[in-house]
């Protein structure tokens, strides 16, 4: 039976449609892979600034290990206005949507495609948008995978720094510094050259600058960690959430800060060891494994469908800044179905876990 599933998996090609979906805040370009099923969630993605669905997620979703997920879950990629490949320059006088407004585009997409519920996968600005959407529409969201999320507004020092950067750097330089850490920029010249080429040749510079401006003027998410015996009605994400960041990412501190503000019984924070600013592109197999365990924790993938995960050795560095080990999160529950994890080197709540077949 497992062999039959793998053979089917290798030839499965989902039906793909591209549409511009109208919303109150303008049209958004969407790519729908597969057919939505009644009472079954769809994976909905949203990209970061300077990227579109291809440059942000193609490496992840075209990876062979992702086939199993694609076979079980339709995928809906959402692109912010004017960010798709070959987009025309937005007309002068166009008011670009704020981050809050972009989060309200998602319900229009869900209604247009008739999606029952979603599991959101967002990166950077896209992670913020999906988190904001989940805060306002918790009944539409089963779970969130948030990569490089920054829950805070840009502070005064950050704002001044951004202004100076605008004066002294080109837009591609600014975006590269947003997407990648200093180590990558200094040492991985091929990677940086590839993304610089994608930014300058496949995207409209004015449109990207508008999206960046919107992101830099975001409001804080205003989430608060619920405290037993205290403010149990604190505003926070109600769904299970997996936070992901590379240990060399410029977003490390922001992601750890986000973890400190979310419900510890529903949140898992993974710091990917030896990983850069874009974990889904740098270490796609490990991110896919984490997503599979996360989805299984939501109750959608059986242990039988997890057999593929035993074929590889992977390692994560998992940070949990303030949660008690007594709290069992969805990712950890999923791990126990497939194979055991051995914790090593555990200074100050940081552990390295190696998964072996």
Automatic annotation (TrEMBL):
State if Protein transport is listed as a keyword. no
The record's annotation in SUPFAM superfamilies points to: alpha/beta-Hydrolases
Residue ranges crossing the lipid bilayer per the database entry: none
Q: Which GO terms describe its biological process?
A: cell differentiation; nervous system development; Wnt signaling pathway
Where do the record's region annotations for Disordered lie?
313-357
Report the domain of life of the source organism.
Eukaryota
Its function?
Contributes to the regulation of the Wnt signaling pathway. Down-regulates CTNNB1-mediated transcriptional activation of target genes. May be involved in neuron differentiation.
* Protein's name in the database: Protein NDRG2
What organism, scientifically named, is this protein from? Champsocephalus gunnari
Q: Lineage, please?
A: Eukaryota, Metazoa, Chordata, Craniata, Vertebrata
């Amino acid at each position: 039976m497992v062999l039959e599933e793998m053979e089917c998996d290798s030839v499965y090609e989902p039906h793909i449609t591209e549409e511009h979906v109208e919303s109150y805040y303008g049209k958004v370009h969407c790519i729908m892979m597969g057919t939505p099923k009644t009472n079954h969630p769809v994976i909905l993605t949203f990209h970061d600034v300077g990227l579109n669905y291809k440059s942000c997620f193609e490496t992840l979703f075209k990876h062979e290990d992702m086939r199993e997920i694609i076979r079980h879950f339709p995928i809906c990629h959402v692109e912010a206005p004017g960010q798709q490949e070959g987009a025309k320059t937005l007309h002068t006088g166009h008011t670009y949507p704020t981050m809050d407004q972009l989060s309200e585009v998602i319900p229009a997409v869900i209604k247009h495609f008739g999606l029952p519920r979603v599991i959101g996968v967002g990166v950077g600005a896209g992670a913020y948008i999906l988190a904001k959407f989940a805060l306002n529409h918790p009944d539409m969201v089963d779970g969130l995978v948030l990569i490089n999320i920054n829950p805070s507004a840009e502070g005064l020092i950050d704002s001044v720094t951004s202004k100076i950067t605008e004066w002294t750097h080109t837009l591609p330089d600014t975006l590269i510094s947003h997407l990648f850490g200093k180590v990558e920029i200094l040492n991985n010249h091929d990677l940086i050259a590839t993304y610089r080429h994608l930014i300058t040749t496949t995207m409209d510079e004015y449109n990207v600058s508008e999206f960046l401006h919107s992101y830099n003027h975001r409001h804080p998410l205003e989430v608060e960690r619920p405290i037993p015996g205290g403010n149990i009605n604190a505003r926070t994400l109600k769904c299970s959430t997996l936070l992901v960041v590379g240990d060399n990412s410029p977003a490390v501190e922001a992601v750890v800060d986000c973890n400190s503000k979310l419900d510890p019984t529903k949140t898992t924070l993974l710091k990917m060891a030896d990983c850069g600013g874009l974990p889904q592109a740098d270490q796609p197999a490990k991110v896919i494994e984490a997503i599979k365990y996360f989805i299984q924790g939501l109750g959608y993938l059986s242990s039988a469908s997890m057999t593929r995960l035993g074929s590889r050795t992977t390692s994560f560095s998992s940070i949990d800044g303030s949660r008690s080990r007594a709290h069992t999160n969805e990712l950890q529950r999923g791990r126990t179905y497939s194979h055991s994890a051995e914790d090593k080197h555990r200074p100050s709540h940081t552990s390295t876990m190696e998964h072996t077949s």
